[in-house]
Amino acid sequence: MTLLLARKIRLLLASGTILLAFALAMAAHAQDLPPPQPSPLPGLNYDQPFFPNAQDDPNVPTPDSILGFPVGSKPATHAQIEAVFKAIAAKSPRAKLFVYGKTHEGRALYYMVIASEANLNRLDSLKVNLAKFADPRKVSKEEGDRLAATLPAVAWMAYCIHGNEMSGSDASLAVAYHLAAGTGAELTNLLDKLVVIIDPLMNPDGRDRCLNMEAQNRTVQPSVDDQSMLHSGVWPSGRMNHYLFDMNRDWIFATQPETRGRIRAVHEWNPHYFMESHEMESQSTFLFLPGREAVNLNQPDNVRKWEVAFAQDQAAAFDTHVWRYYTGEWNDDWYPGYSSSWSALRGAVANLYEEAGIHTDAVRREEGTLETYREAVHKQLVSTMANLTFLAKNRQAVLSDFLAEKRKCVGPDASIPAHTFAVLASANATRQRRFLDLMALEGFEVYAAGESFTAQGKDRLGREVKDMKFPAGTLLIPVRQPLARLLNSMLEFDPRPIPQFLTDERRDLLRIGRSRIYDITGWSLPMMFDVQAFDLPTDLPSEAQAKLASNTPPAQAPMTNSDAGVAFVIDGADDASVAAAGRLMERGVGVRVADKPFQFDHHDFSRGSVLITRKDNANFAGPLTGVVSNVCAELSLTAVGVRTGFGPGDLPDLGGEHFTFLKQPRIAIFGREPIAAYSYGSTWYLIDHVLGLRASYLDAQYISSTDLRRYNVLVLPDGAGANSLKSGMDSLKDWVSAGGTLVAIGSSAGAFAREKSGFGATRQLPNVLGKMDDYRQAVVREWEASQTTPDPAKVWAFSPPAALSYPWQIGESDDKEKEDELKRRDAWRAIFMPEGALLAGRVDDQSWLTAGCGEYLPLIYSGRTILLSPPSVQAPVRLGFFSPAPPKPPEAASSTESKDKKKDDAKPAPGWTIAPPGFEMRLRMSGLLWPEAADRLANAAYVTRQSVGSGQLILFASDPTFRGAALGTSRIFANAVTLGPGMGASEAIKP
Ligand SMILES: [Zn+2]
After folding, report:
1. What's the whole-number mean pLDDT along residues 462-471?
2. Is the torsion defined by CA of 117, 119, 125, 130 positive or negative?
C-alpha cells in the first residue's frame, strides 16, 4: 500500500464517511493478487561472472546501474543500450561515441571508439594514417614498415544485424564497460595496441520489434521451449529492419540507411579485424570462422590464414569453459554481401559469431540441460575478448600482412589480372546515378572516358565483342585499385567457385535433395542494376583519356519550354518517370503514357514517356506548370514543354491510340501470413519509398472479407500458395473481372496458374508436361510476330498452296513419351533448380510493361514457380535471349560435319525447340544454373499478362523487387502497379 493511499483512507475514516468506501477500496486492492511463484527450474540461474576480479574506474557508471537490471539477465532495448553507451562515453577518458546513421524508424545508430587516452586524443591523425596504410600507392616500403610497427590495429566489433539475434548486443555493453572503465596492466597493454570500435546494435528497429513481440508474449512463468512464441517470435520476426530487408545481405547493394551509414564509417576507419555476431538455431552450439571452404576466389589469402589462427585461439577459450563450438560446416563466403565476406574482401580478417538462439530466460536442450540467455551473452563476450587479446598479441604481423595484401591489389604482380569494367552512358539518369552512388559509397575509383576509344572484351551475355567503339563519357572501373577484391567480387560477370564445390553441391542435391549453397549465386552489379556493361581485359585504356568521374552529376532544370502550349513530356527512359506519373496523379494531374517512341517539336522521346497535356488538365485547379515542375524537381527529372502533338512521318500523333490516359492507381499490398516477409518488404519499400506512392497494406488472411472495391491494383507478394488463397480466390476473380489489376509474384503467382483452383490461362510447368507443344506454339508465334517477312510471291499467288508450312515441326519434342516418364524426368530436372541465378530474359518491346527495358533483361531467378503461357496470354519477358548464332569454326565443320549431316538429313530439320534456326539462346548470365534447370526454364515466361473481363492478371515467376536491388525487373513491377489501371484494365466512365 502506498503512503498516499494510506493517508487517503485515514482521511476518509476521520471524516466519518464511510465504511463502504473503505470496503470498495480494499476489494479493488484485493484483486491485485501477485502471480503464482514459478516452480523452481534447475539450471535457470547462470551465475558465472563475466569479468572475474576486474578492477574498474568508479567514475564510469556500470551498465547495471543504468539498465536497472544485471547485464545479460534479459535483452536490453535500443533505448537502454543507447543510455549505457552515452553514460560510458560521458565519463570514460578512453571512449568516444559517434552517431553513424538513423534507421527508418528514427533510431540512432552508434559506434563507440575505445582506445588508449593518447590515441583517443588523436583520432583524426590516426584515421589519416590508417587510410594511407590501406592504399599502398601512397606509402613507400619504409613508411609502410614504420606504420605497421607503430599503428594500432583497428578491431571493428559489431553486434545484432539480425534484430532477433540478441545476445551479442548485451555482451557489447559489458565489453564496452570493461574496456572503458577497467584498470590494470593487461588492459592498458591491450588498448595501447588496439583501437576497438564497437557497434553495439546494427539493427535497432528489428531488435525493438522483436522485444515488443517478446513483451506481448511474455509469461510470468519462465519459458524454456524454443518453439514457444516467446522465443520464435511471430510474422515477420525481428530479423530484418523496418522494410524487412536482411541487412546481412545488403552490404553490396546498400539500399538501406543502416548499411549506408556503416559502409561510410568502415571506409573512414579501414579496420584490420571485423567481427559481427549472430544467433542461429536454438539447439545448435556456437559457430565461428573460418567458413567451410574458400569458395569465393577473390578472398585474400592473408584473411584465410589469420581466420584459422584466430579460430584456434577462440577454440581454446571455449575449451576452458567446456563450451561446444564448430567452424565451417554450413557457412560459406561465396556471396560477397554478408558482413563477414564483405569485410574480408576489403582486406580485414573477418569473424562471425553464431550462438544458439535464446531470446530470453533459457532454452531446454535435447540433452535435457538449460542454456540461459546470460550464458549466450557470456559466450559472445568471451569470444570478443579472446579475439581482441589475440589481435593485440599479433598486431604487427596482422598489419604487415594487411599491407602486403593491399600491395597485391595494386601492384604489377596482382593476383587478379588487370581488367576494367566499362559502363555505357544511359538515358536512364536515375539508374546511372544509383550505380555511381553505390560505386562511390563502396570507395571504388570510377573514371569517365574523355575521348571515345575502341576496345575488345565481353558483354554481360558472355559474348565476345571486337573493335567496339566506346563513346566519350563511358564509365571505366579498373580493378587495379586498393579495393580490387571487393570491386571484382561485386562487378565480375561470371564468378565461379572452386571445382570441388560444384562436385559436392551436385552430390548433395542427389543424395539429400538439398543445396549446400547458403545464398544466391548470381549478384553481378551491372546485371542486378541492369546497366550496359562490358568487361575489357586491360587496365584503363590510354586512348580513353580517362579522368576520375564525379559522382554528383550536374543538377538539371525540372522544366524546359515552360510556356509551351500543348504538353509537357517526361522521358520514359528514366525509371523515375513512373514515380512522376504516379505522384502527378496523386496531385490530381491528368497523365498519359506513350506505348511507342515518338517525336514532338524536334524532341525524341522513348516508349513509356509521361505526358501532361494542357487539354486533359483544363479543369486543374492551380498552376499546372508549378506542380509538374515540383514533382520533376523532387525526382531529378526534366519535363520538356512541346508546342505540337504532331509526330512526323509514321510516328504517333498526340490524339491517336498511342497515348493512353492513365487512371490513378489505388494500390493495396497483401502482407502477413502466408506471404514471404522479404518479398512483402521489398515490394513495400519500392512502392512507399522509391515510387513514393500512397498504398494500403492488408492482411492476406482476410482477403475474402476485405472490401476490395476500394482498390484498383492488388499485389500479392511471393509466399502464398493455392491452398492459402483458396478462400479468397472467388473474390479476387470477381474483382479482376470488374476492372482490377492483380499482380502476383512467385508461389502466389503459381496459385493463379492452376486449371481448377486458379483463373487465367497461364499454367505451371509440372501440370502440363504432356502438352508442351501447345505452349511452344505461343513461343513460335511471338517470334514470328516480331521477325516475319512475308514472301510476296506466295502471298499474291492465285492458287492456294499445295501444302502449308508451319513454323513448328510435329515430333520436335519428347511429349509423346508416357506421362509417368515425363513426370519422372521433370522431377529429376527439378532437383537442380537454381538458388538465385541471373538469367537473360528476352523483352517484348511492344508491351507497355517493358517500358524502360533494353532488348534483354538480366533477372534474378529463384523459387520453384515456372510459368507457361498459351497464345491467349502475353509474355512480355521470357527466359532466354535469342542471339545470332556465331558461324561454326571451320575445323568443326570438316571433321564431324559429314556424320552430323547424315543424321540431320535422316529426319526433318529440327526447326526449333530451344532457339529458332540461325540463333542460339543465351540463358545463364551469372551464377549456378545446372543444365537440367536450364532445360526446364528455357522459354518459360518470367512475366505474363492476361485480360480477364475488364481487368488483368499479371504474374511474375520470381520476385522482381529482389532485395531492392534488381532495378531492371523492378521497373517492370513499377510499370505494372502504376500504369496498370490505365494501360491494361478499364474502368467505367463516371457520369
Ligand atoms: Zn544472423
Report:
1. 97
2. negative
Quote the ligand 1 centre to 76 CA distance (angstroms): 18
User: According to DSSP H, which parts of 554-605 are helical?
Assistant: 576-586
pTM of the model: 0.94
Question: Can you state the angle between helices 301-320 and 373-393, rounded to 10 degrees?
Answer: 130
Asked if residue 372 has pLDDT above 80, the reply is yes
In angstroms, what is the span from residue 369 Cα to ligand 1's centroid? 24
Strongest mean pLDDT among 20-24, 39-43, 895-899: 39-43
Task: Find, among 706, 731, 334, 647, the residue nearest to 504 by Cα.
Answer: 334
CA–centroid distance, 77 to ligand 1, in Å, is: 18
Q: How far is the CA of 278 from the centre of ligand 1 (A)?
A: 4
Report residue 705 as a C-alpha cell.
Answer: 472479407
Query: If you measure from the C-alpha of residue 69 to the centroid of ligand 1, how many angstroms do you get, rounded to a whole number?
Result: 26
| CA pair distance 895, 905, nearest whole angstrom | 17
CA of 675 to the centre of ligand 1 (A): 21
Q: Name the residue among 304, 102, 120, 107 with its Cα closest to residue 194.
A: 120
Mean pLDDT of 276-297: 91
Stretch 623-634: mean pLDDT? 97
Residue 739: Cβ within 10 Å count: 18
Residue 380: phi and psi, rounded to 5, are -65, -40
Predicted confidence (pLDDT) per residue in 634-647, tens digit: 999 999 999 999 99
Distance from the alpha carbon of residue 352 to the mean position of ligand 1, in angstroms: 9
| Dist. CA 529 → ligand 1 center (Å) | 26
* d(CA 353, ligand 1 centre) in Å: 9
Cα angle for residues 382, 387, 390 (degrees, 5° grid): 120
User: Residue 988 gets which letter from DSSP?
Assistant: P
3-state secondary structure of 6: helix
Give the pLDDT confidence score for residue 392 in this predicted structure.
98
Q: What is the mean pLDDT of the chain?
A: 92
Report how far ligand 1's centroid is from the alpha carbon of 399 (Å).
Answer: 28
Ligand 1 center–CA 735 separation, angstroms: 41
Q: Does 900 score more than 90 pLDDT?
A: no
pLDDT digits (tens, 9 = 90+) for 99-111: 999 999 999 999 9
Ligand 1 centre and the CA of 531: distance in Å?
31
Of the chain, the percentage scoring pLDDT greater than 70 comes to: 93
Centre of ligand 1 to C-alpha 162, Å, is: 5
What cell numbers appear for 847 in the block?
Answer: 508491351
Q: How far does the centroid of ligand 1 lie from the alpha carbon of residue 964, in Å?
A: 19
Q: If you measure from the C-alpha of residue 663 to the centroid of ligand 1, how many angstroms do you get, rounded to a whole number?
A: 43
- C-alpha 239 – ligand 1 centre gap (Å): 7
Res. 614: pLDDT tops 70: yes
State the distance from the centre of ligand 1 to the C-alpha of 126, rounded, in angstroms: 32
CA dist., res. 330 & res. 893, Å (int): 47
**C-beta separation of 703 from 732 below 8 A:** yes
Tens-place pLDDT, residues 325-356:
999 888 788 999 999 999 999 999 999 999 99
Centre of ligand 1 to C-alpha 431, Å, is: 31
Please, what sign has the CA dihedral across residues 668, 669, 670, 672?
negative
pLDDT-derived band at 14, boundaries 50, 70, 90: very low
- How many A from CA of 161 to the centre of ligand 1? 7
What is the grid cell recorded at 647?
Answer: 509526330
Interval between CA 276 and ligand 1 midpoint (Å): 9
Q: What is residue 674's three-state secondary structure?
A: coil
For the cut 80, the answer to whether the pLDDT of residue 12 exceeds it is no
- What is the per-residue pLDDT across 78-87, written as a single tens digit (0 to 9) for each? 999 999 999 9
Q: How many CB atoms lie within 10 A of CB 196?
A: 27
Tell me the CA–centroid distance for residue 646 and ligand 1, in Å.
59
Burial class of residue 987 in the structure, from the number of CB atoms within 10 Å of its CB (0-12 exposed, 13-18 middle, 19+ buried): middle
